């Protein structure tokens, strides 16, 4: 077991190196050995896939390694983040080497020979590698072809495939780290938040919270039988918990995303709805009435203007109850606390309610 | 060149996704499949919304966008991820009067479907064939190549290929049926009514009728739309399953069919459209009826009914004038008389059979079609007469060596309807060529298949037919 762990460790290093300029020094023999190693580990994956003990031990080892890698910059990523990744580590390795321009000519030729040994030479297993490489290449080419033809994004779409894909991967990863330890998801999310860019991360979070629970995150894998049983939505739960514990992030989430998107998210996750309502009322309290201009303005520039606050309430009121009812009740309560005036310009709640009433 | 293109696919990346995935610890291999799936789904929902929104111009997908989408898909249709998109494009109808999709897109999808590189629901395939005629023609020709012009297939396999081709199911749409049917018509005309083509047409019709019954209880299209030139009552009679009629009563509908056919054939000679070929073409669609005439004649104890004799003669040579047809009918009647006598006799020899079949005044040769008809009768006799069972084996296995020369066993069941260059003399029918052996195999195969469909109880005849079939098929 210990030697297996060590081999895993060493191979992770090989994988990490495979995407750097260090492969310049690789000769054909190195390429062959690295591929043999990958095949061996795939064999390990097949052999121990159902062996819970070994599987868990290896999984832990990989998670530890990934946490250590996390600090050392993206160049050092091995890409082996979980036990399942072992199932296609040969694909991972060949893919990286194929894409690495630093690989010398002789080594590159050897790589091609190894991957495409010609008819009759390969056994069944080699064929799978070649097939998966070809399929992957075709998929990548298809993605680029669609994007190059301007079909990659839909101007009127409510869903952006790029964001949605990132959301699926995020949930998948959350689930994987969640299996290895309770602290995993929190650390992962905080790390991602700190690394930024924060705005696009917020979009990904929103998309993840909206993914239909029925679809298991991530693309379907070939060797399904070895996959861990998916608890649908588990990653989502971690995500909600993390958001609730992060006041700054939650505030940024509620301020920077479009109103309609936020309404859908809080409609799906009632825990977030209460916090969202609280944030909106705080926001309203911080605005004051500019008598000269006749509008509600924020004390600081970063406070959203009245229109943004109004659009959020408006979107909530267009949603089915309980969102609509609770939003209106919150506004009424605030209005009563302010003295229940009906004249405009005295209480923001009165003005919001009358704007919503006339807009509806 | 190509290799570097393939390699370049591994060398570019999408920055925004790439970085995020990397910080999750994933490789591009992990996100590309998902990304492609999402892009495809997004395009599919764009097309669907477009469909639903109708004339709401704001959210409509521009026709140029649809067109360029179909163009981009051409090299990608065989990628499994694209199946939903291909389906959505095929079933998408815009609001433009002319076709929006690239013709090459249809070609690519059709080719992929024929080579089984893509799996699409029937509805999508029907749309493809309705929108792009060359694809339908190509699919029909592909089926012909597979079934008719290649190695001989058993009927069971033919039926499997047929259903797999989706053509009979798609033919529930009359426009598709008419095209496929037209191609069968030409194939029969071009091949002089080759038995293989005929058998394929009958399997097609069988599967088509089955699909039509499954399709909808209240037939969406009137039968008239499928067979516009035929009298509706005749079509109705032919569409009846022989199976639904007790065996002893089957000669009744058959007689009615014969009378109606005769009427329209003889009517047509007075200048109405179509000609005898059209009537014959309609009749031979329905193998369940067409193949049963000889059997009915042989089994009926009474004097052979005139109508059935006419039908048999007509089936085998539809273009005969009334004089030669009357002659054929007389000959058939005579042979039937002999055979019925033999049916009652306890012993039987190959020579007796020859005598029954071969007598012809003045030793004149029969026309080809008539000879085939007679041999067909003899083969039926061998299968049904208890005494025939003992000599059938001898006749079949000694084919080509018996001096008696009856060897009736290798007959084509089928009916070249038109004068054909294949001249086989009844007096020396043992000129056992590869072709006649193949035709005998076809006869036995078809008879067994028909009995299966009719759930016919005839264990001894079945066993014999199956044994003879195996024997002929394994013969070098």
TrEMBL record, chain A:
Location relative to the cell: Nucleus
Lineage: superkingdom: Eukaryota
GO cellular component: chromatin; Fanconi anaemia nuclear complex; nucleoplasm
Keyword Nucleus carried by entry: yes
Alphabetically ordered keywords of this record: DNA damage, DNA repair, Nucleus
Region Disordered, residue ranges: 212-231
GO biological process terms on file: interstrand cross-link repair
InterPro entries documented for this protein: FANCF, FANCF_C_sf
One Pfam assignment: FANCF
Chain ranges passing through the membrane: none
Major place of residence: nucleus
Function: DNA repair protein that may operate in a postreplication repair or a cell cycle checkpoint function. May be implicated in interstrand DNA cross-link repair and in the maintenance of normal chromosome stability.
Official protein name in the record: Fanconi anemia group F protein
Organism listed in the record: Myotis lucifugus (Little brown bat)
GN (gene name): FANCF
Automatic annotation (TrEMBL), chain B:
GO biological process, one term: nucleotide-excision repair
Signal peptide extent: none
Gene this protein is translated from: FANCC
InterPro entries according to UniProt: FANCC (IPR000686)
Pfam families (alphabetical): Fanconi_C
Stated name of the protein: FA complementation group C
Positions in coiled-coil regions: none
Entry GO CC: chromatin; cytosol; Fanconi anaemia nuclear complex
Annotated spans, Disordered: 400-420
Superkingdom of this protein's organism: Eukaryota
